[in-house]
Design brief:
With about 240 residues, the protein is mainly α. The chain is built from 13 helices and no strands. The chain has helices at about 5-15, 20-40, 40-45, 50-55, 55-70, 80-85, 90-110, 115-125, 130-155, 160-185, 190-200, 200-210, 215-240. Helix 2 (about 20-40) packs antiparallel against helix 5. The longest helix is centred in the C-terminal third of the chain and has 26 residues, at about 215-240.
Length: about 240
């Protein structure tokens, strides 16, 4: 794992040198604040938490995560780079983890740009910082799970436009699953609905976002991240063997 920091820093430098990174982060941050203020008179009603803003993140990540994931394997199409990688004492797992962590840091950077909302909430004097902290953590975990899925998808096919649309479509389906479950609540057996709810990332995210920060939900997101990163590693090993 000695070269993991090198991969991490190299991927961060790649993001820093790509204008699309700044554009996608700016769009995410601006829309997160603007739509939250537009949908609710938050300062006048209840500023003890930021749920009105964080409940938009599963949808706004559709604009950010595919852009970050698409840049993870931009080097993979370069045959010379792949030949160089084979000569270095580095494993595919280190390669995947280093790149993923860099992308996750960029997602966290976009998230932290909304931090002025926390300052405003505390200035108003009624902020529940414990709930707000759980909202930030849950949003970052959700971003990590989306990134892990995108990281895996972008190893399958080289057509980046099609993959971008596929990633957005998959995340859109996952984000909309909770609304489907609400519609099925009185149409399907309770055990079936509960089983689907337990598998829905959006339902887990909503629970933590409401301040119900549990170890079970946290482990769910971590397990999802590790599972897709493992699938990415296996896929890359197979393609490069």
């Amino acid at each position: 794992m000695k070269l993991l920091p090198v991969i991490f820093k190299r991927q961060l430098a790649h993001y820093a040198g790509t204008p699309g990174t700044y554009l996608s982060i700016a769009i995410f941050s601006v829309l997160s604040v603007a739509l939250g203020l537009h949908m609710s008179s938050w300062p006048e009603q209840d500023s003890s938490h930021l749920q009105v803003f964080f409940q938009l993140h599963p949808w706004l990540y559709l604009l950010l995560i595919p852009v970050l994931a698409a840049q993870l394997w931009s080097d993979e199409s370069n045959a010379g780079f792949l030949d160089l990688m084979k000569t270095l004492p580095i494993t595919t797992f280190e390669w995947v983890i280093g790149k993923f962590l860099a992308a996750w840091v960029m997602a966290g950077t976009a998230l932290m740009l909304t931090f002025p909302l926390v300052i405003i909430a505390n200035y108003l004097g009624v902020a529940d910082n414990t709930v707000i902290a759980s909202q930030f953590i849950s949003s970052w975990l959700l971003a990590g799970s989306y990134l892990a899925v995108g990281c895996f998808i972008f190893t399958l096919v080289r057509q980046r436009t099609a993959l971008f649309l596929l990633t957005v479509g998959l995340m859109l389906i996952v984000s909309a699953l909770s609304y489907l479950l609400d519609a099925l609540e009185h149409q399907a057996p309770i055990w079936a609905v509960d089983s689907l709810v337990s598998l829905s990332p959006f339902s887990r995210y909503s629970a933590i976002d409401n301040g119900k920060f549990t170890l079970r939900d946290t482990l769910y997101f971590i397990s999802m991240i590790l599972a897709f990163l493992a699938a990415t590693t296996v896929t890359l090993n197979y393609k490069h063997s």
